[in-house]
Amino acid sequence: MKQQVKKTHWKSKLHDIIYEADTPAGKWFDIILILVIIVSIILVMLESVEGFDNKYHNLLNISEWIITILFSLEYIARIISIKKPSNYVFSFYGIIDFLATIPMYLSLFFIGTQALIALRALRLLRVFRILKLTRYLGASVNLISALKASRIKISVFLFSVLVITIILGTVMYLIEGPQNGFTSIPHSMYWAIVTLTTVGYGDLAPHTPFGQFIASLVMILGYGIIAVPTGIVTSEMTKQDTKIHSNTQSCSNCSFDKHMDNAAFCHKCGEKLNHE
Amino acid sequence: MKQQVKKTHWKSKLHDIIYEADTPAGKWFDIILILVIIVSIILVMLESVEGFDNKYHNLLNISEWIITILFSLEYIARIISIKKPSNYVFSFYGIIDFLATIPMYLSLFFIGTQALIALRALRLLRVFRILKLTRYLGASVNLISALKASRIKISVFLFSVLVITIILGTVMYLIEGPQNGFTSIPHSMYWAIVTLTTVGYGDLAPHTPFGQFIASLVMILGYGIIAVPTGIVTSEMTKQDTKIHSNTQSCSNCSFDKHMDNAAFCHKCGEKLNHE
Amino acid sequence: MKQQVKKTHWKSKLHDIIYEADTPAGKWFDIILILVIIVSIILVMLESVEGFDNKYHNLLNISEWIITILFSLEYIARIISIKKPSNYVFSFYGIIDFLATIPMYLSLFFIGTQALIALRALRLLRVFRILKLTRYLGASVNLISALKASRIKISVFLFSVLVITIILGTVMYLIEGPQNGFTSIPHSMYWAIVTLTTVGYGDLAPHTPFGQFIASLVMILGYGIIAVPTGIVTSEMTKQDTKIHSNTQSCSNCSFDKHMDNAAFCHKCGEKLNHE
Amino acid sequence: MKQQVKKTHWKSKLHDIIYEADTPAGKWFDIILILVIIVSIILVMLESVEGFDNKYHNLLNISEWIITILFSLEYIARIISIKKPSNYVFSFYGIIDFLATIPMYLSLFFIGTQALIALRALRLLRVFRILKLTRYLGASVNLISALKASRIKISVFLFSVLVITIILGTVMYLIEGPQNGFTSIPHSMYWAIVTLTTVGYGDLAPHTPFGQFIASLVMILGYGIIAVPTGIVTSEMTKQDTKIHSNTQSCSNCSFDKHMDNAAFCHKCGEKLNHE
């Protein structure tokens, strides 16, 4: 039985290290983990640089395996130390961790599984977990809640952009035609998005005067509608800010309830306020 | 006479299915309609992809006719089931529906009527009718009323941009000249818009040092004036938000219901307000 | 003496037609003037289109002279009908009108005076005079006062952009060098502005990995600082809106002075308000 | 001892001229300094223009030395006239001044020290010191404090952009591959930044239909996230404006002076306020 307790104790300690970020050991674990993740991402990048890969192919391969083994150990440790492993395995981070770990194993059996390696970058999101307890929280909560609150408006906006893109793509396909590079409607829609978003690669540009006239209208339209997401997010963010900095205590005498944060007396009737 | 009643009943039922979206049958009709519209748009897109069209020309042609017949039936049903057909025929959606239906019929007699097929994308706007009764309404009303309220400011802004474009186009035509691709003033104006809106295809770019200097000024100007539509829409949207969140208590005397949050007396009749 | 009165009367009537926009005759004069200005600008544009100029050279030349004579007559009429001609001649519009009229006369003696014709576009600004008395006034006043109020902030911003441009231009010239198209520091500065403003023609793009890294930083920087003019103008515009919609009447009983525009009673103490 | 006093006096006078900007002599010193800095920057630019350098190499070289000597004298004067030279030498401006002065001396011994000359542009920041006492102060303080206040949000935002860039870079590398110009992941990340920031050079653009589809999503994403920094800065700037325009009446009892505009009683001590 003592054995049992000890084992549980050991598991619980491991849990603290891996899942908690506010103990010294947990902090160190997280910092090392982030460094390993960054190294793993840099490895993936270097591998893709042809000259570099040719020179150091073996070194990169070995490092890749070391990273994979480290990730595997971490993944197993996470499963062991948690009470309900399924809670972790099927969580957002659990799935990312799994997908970031397996490509090397799969590469033994299949070709072209490298694509999954891209998912390693998603592991970087763990940084947000480490920052969880710091002042960065407020900022990201604010950002995310502003984006969430404007979710519906943004959907309406994106749908409108899609309809505009389809119409513009068809119109430009008919005006410019395949001889000017607008080989199909989907290709013209690609042009419409490139233009509306003011990216403007120039790989596809109108050549006929009428096409250029329509394109000018599209650009000015894009100029106008770039204001819409900005307007949505800004007004939402201003609102979020107000919420956070507002104070809801009400005066016991006159019930006025919009006081400044540092108010000690009601500025309407002079009554003393009870600080919350 | 019974016959008459039955016929009216049948018509009224059809009307409910086609024009209403809050009955189960009406909902299904709308969903199927949207799916047919999406299929029709995908068909138009696929037709424009050369390789695909060559391979499946007959299949596409038949599908096109099926869509056209479905649209025709829907158009006729809409006319039959409404009391005053002219109300539908000359409405925004009525005209779009008509123009989206006829291209295939016209193609029997004329060549080059494919252009009208682009209008099918406009039928997608029907989606907004289906979403009419959901929470998306508030968001789109908000968006549209913000854009409507800033209508005049945006007109002044667009007119100023037009004047700037004419001046810049003429100036760049004189500086760079046809030898650098600025073949005419309208073409230079196209360049000015491409630059002001920060699209920057690069199909037309200044080559002389002085032209590049002027272009730099234009870009910084464009940088500055991109702030104007954003400012307009954002400030309008912030206002809209405020309106929606305005106080809804109504005066017990005169029933006026748009009071400021800190109002103690109705500002219309002087009656004391009951704070909620 | 009667002659004198009649002459004055005739002059005063001419003055009303030319300078006033709220009499029927004045309105018609302004509308015709704007139309002539638009025709004159279209003429300048058509002249610059080579194919068109070759075909209709004589027609264009004659039209140009007709426009010039009309402008001359208008210019003389403006001088005659005003009491102090210098008030008009040296005003903003007076100078533009003069410069828009003389190019054809100068072209008899000099070559290359066509450049001045570009100034005709400036005459379009007269449109704002005609709209003077309409609801467009509020919108443009709002726009202009917002821009004026943010004048200093925008200067600070533009100066910072200039310093950043010089530094970036020098750095990229040193990194990329003439072999990659960055032939001189001014040319590199042109690149820096093209990149910072997110125009991105692509006529000049970094080719070395390090140059591309620096360019990436520049773009993200540009992404960030595009927020600054937008922020300035938006916050200013929000303020302007508040000002215009605010009401400054104060209650005679409690002196509260922030009432809604349609307030008839003070919402603080219930006292009747005197509408201004 | 008199000598000592005189020397001190001379030093103190020099200090006033060099370090103070509100005495006439100090003002003149600053204006001349800025002019010399501007001339020095123009020199560096001209030197980089090949044709110009070939023609006037000697003239440029001599001017460069004159500027260097002037800067050296100023640097020495600054060290002499200050009580604690280390306060200046290791300050921000001290380091810039040093680095802007030495390149010519170093060029006698080393090759390729021209890079440091780019730092001369940083000396332009001195302009802000001269404007220190003017109305430009408020504007820049406002700008800087708005940026400072949004520091954390901007960090969160930039980090998110970095993660997105890595993921997109990897995905596009896998989709498009080296045959379409996406030669490595870092190179693809460069493309991702060029696209996300809507710069769009076009030196690297997707060629496969699927790549263009992903690119379209990226552009719309970029369109959306351009709203985030704008929203952050705008809401912060609006807040700053509010702060600056806050009510300045001070309480007669406790002298607290940041009351709300409609405050009737001091919210700190409950004293009745005198409305201005």
Instruction: Estimate what percentage of residues of chain A fall within beta strands.
Output: under 5%
- Number of domain modules of chain A: 2
Element order, helices and strands of chain A? HHHHHHHHHHHHH
Average predicted confidence as pLDDT of chain A: 77
Overall, the morphology of chain A is flat
Please summarize what this structure is:
The structure is a homotetramer of 276-residue chains. With 276 residues, the first copy, chain A, is an all-alpha fold. Chain A is 68% helix and 0% strand.
Question: What report would you give on this structure?
Answer:
- Four copies of one chain form a homotetramer.
- With 276 residues, chain A is mainly alpha-helical.
- Chain A folds into two domains: 136 residues, Up-down Bundle (Four Helix Bundle (Hemerythrin (Met), subunit A)), CATH 1.20.120; 92 residues, Helix Hairpins.
- Chain A contains 13 helices and no strands.
- In chain A, helix 1 packs across helix 2 and helix 1 packs across helix 4.
- Chain A is flat and about 80 Å long.
- The two termini of chain A are 49 Å apart.
- Chains in contact: A-B, A-C, A-D, B-C, B-D, C-D.
- The interface between A and D is large, with 64 and 63 residues.
